[in-house]
Structure formats: structure tokens, C-alpha cells
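Protocol step 4 of 6: structure prediction from sequence.
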Amino acid sequence: MFRVHASDRAVALSEQLIRAHRTLRERLASVREEVAGGTARPAVPGDLLSHCLSFCTAIQAHHAGEDSHLFPALRAAAPELAPMIGKLMEDHALVVGILQQVRALLAADRPPAAPGTLLRELDGLTAILESHFSFEERRIAASLDALGPGAWTPGIFAP
């Protein structure tokens, strides 16, 4: 039987972060492909609107977990990371703004957005998230792994 030791769990923090980012990247690419392939708001239930809103919820949950659990633990364990953590939190605020714009473009009480308009927002979101995820993965992986077994909080990286 395979057993995960506490030290293995701590080292897995950076791997979990990378997996969550991979899943979010894939979901965003899927949403973008859906927009590129058709109208901005098809009439079929379970359509692009729900797909987009699901992605928006997932990215916000991921960032909320980082902001409320991961980043405070990192700041406590490695105070020298405070400026970098501040930068990551600024990125989170930028992402919130774009997600609000995407939601507005898909709102049921307005005419469907032109696919090009929605694609531009998604391309901007993709660029910001790719830069953000890459920076986060490069800069905090070692710090995550050094946090130790007590730092594991389920749900921090949930996509």
C-alpha cells in the first residue's frame, strides 16, 4: 500500500500549485476555443455562459485560497517574499477586473457580445494569467516546499 508521509505532503505543495495552474490554463483555453468557434452567447443551456462562469468561479476560488491561506503562511515563513506576494496579489486584482468584464459581456440582460470583443478580453486574461502563473511557479515553488508538513491546507489550490 502506498502511504504519503507528512514530509512528502509538504513537498507536494508546489506540485499541487502547478497542477492547479495547468487545469486552469486548460479550462481557459477551452473557453477561448468555444468563443472562437461560435457566438458569444449560444441559446443552449449548459453553454458558453455557464462554461465561462464556471471558469470565473474556479479562478476566483483559486486566488481566494492563495490570498487567505497560502500567502499569509508564506509571509510568516519567509518575510523576504512580502514584495513578491504583494505583486501576486496585485495580479489577482487585475484578474478580478477582467473577469468582471467577461461576465458583463455575457450578461443575459444585454445583447450578445461580438465574439471578437470577448476573444480580446479572454486573450488579455490568458496573457495576464500565463505571466502570473509562470512567475508564481518560478518564484515560490521552493518556498512552498520549505514550509513543512504543518502548512498544508486543503483547498488552497483548488481549480
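Step 5 (inspection) to follow. The chain has one domain: 6-151.
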